[in-house]
Amino acid sequence: MLLRAIAIVLSLLLGPLALAETEPPTPTKTPEKPVERPALGERSQAETAALERQLAANEQQQIKTQANETFLALWRPGNSAPAKGAVILVPGEDESADWPIGIGPLRRKLPDTGWSSLSLTLPDAESKQPPEGTDTSAPSDATPSIETAVPEQPNEASAEPQETPAEATSDPAEKAQESNTSPADGDTSNEAQPDYATRVLARIAEGISFAQQQGATTVVLAGQGTGAYWAARYLAEQQPPFVNNLLMIAPQAPADLDPGFDTVLSKLELATGDFYYRDQLAERNAAKQRLDAAKRQKRTAYIQIAMNSLPGNRDVEQEQLFRRIKGWLSLHLQSSPATQ
Known about the structure:
- 33% of the residues lie in helices and 15% in strands.
- Helix 4 (196-213) packs across helix 5 (226-238).
- The protein is α/β, with parallel strands linked by helices and 340 residues long.
- The chain is elongated and about 125 Å long.
């Protein structure tokens, strides 16, 4: 009995030591390095990929600039022999080459009037470049959804446009608002890339060159929103002798860019159609400012066309815009020297 008791006591004393010797040491954890995600492309690149999946291949044109930057343009030849010319559509900021308001409907409808259409893709504005690690995956649909939950507006029958030439009398009660303030910084996050303005103007130049290669002897630049600024700026700086017509759809000045919109327009002496929505206060004031400037400069080929926006009926609104553009092309088009 004594020996048995001694054995039990020894086992109790030596047991923890044996377990300590046999238990493997816990490895020291090393801190994990954060996974470095490569910088993602521009939002416009995601939209381009979506358009390439959804649109017919014969509409898609991959055009390369002299800086070896390739962009998507959507081409539709005019349905007449020969075509009357080409309208090059320049979308605004955050708009794609098939934007459902203005750009898309016009590019599809103009060919039935005998005009070829070429819609450009512009690079993202510098302030909209995605930071590294940002998800810019494209949505399943190429065309963004448009909110239409807005009270019904009068239909087209009660919203006849008003054409205002530069020499017409304007309302002195309306005060224009200054839209341009300071010059923009031309640097981009990618040092190997040209600045934003250079990239945009290069794409417009290549779009014009492509249209001419397709046989267009008359080329019209049509810009929407901030795209109107870039179209006007290209014409003011380059003054191509074969582009004598400019269409501006609800034009807007990009923020903090030099030269300002007024300065750009003051350098133009060509046929200009300025389409704006008169029920939008900001647009009406800006249009008044542009009209007054055109009068001071005696630009008699500058014509304003006022329309009513119809957010409750987008189809009617887009048809209204198309008809006004079609009418301007029929009544106010200035022929290029090659076709005179």
